[in-house]
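Shipment paperwork, digital attachment
Item: protein structure file
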Amino acid sequence: SWIAEALATPLRDAIARHFTGDGAASDPHRPERLFACASTLTNRLSPIFANALSGYLSGYLTATGDDDGSRPSITSRSSTTSRSSAASLARGLALAISRGVGDVVEGHSAPAIELAEEEDAYVGARAYSRDDARRADTRWLHLADECERYDDALRK
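Attachment content:
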């Protein structure tokens, strides 16, 4: 939703600055740092976001009756509707944060791993061995494993 996207924009910008800058956190060979930070943000902020909005949505939905796009009317809505709407917005926040993580992986981590592979290829051209190939694959496999762990954490 646009609300979750708007609230996640500063978080996504901060993640991008922190993990694509010159600091130790931007090491593309350590993607677990990026995913741990994003998981922590999601786990801590989504429930706060949902709780804060559930009270607001409850009052709004009760006053307008506009939770499903119907005409405004003063009706009594159950708190279940506001909780489910707030939970939906919290999931939207988590997805917006994960899009920011995807942007960092796509724009920083993957190109850096590809560049490291190319550098290894120049060195390996003189004395290519199976160990060189395994080392190159290890970087990609590590990134893929961390992506999978992050996806699993988001599903919970």
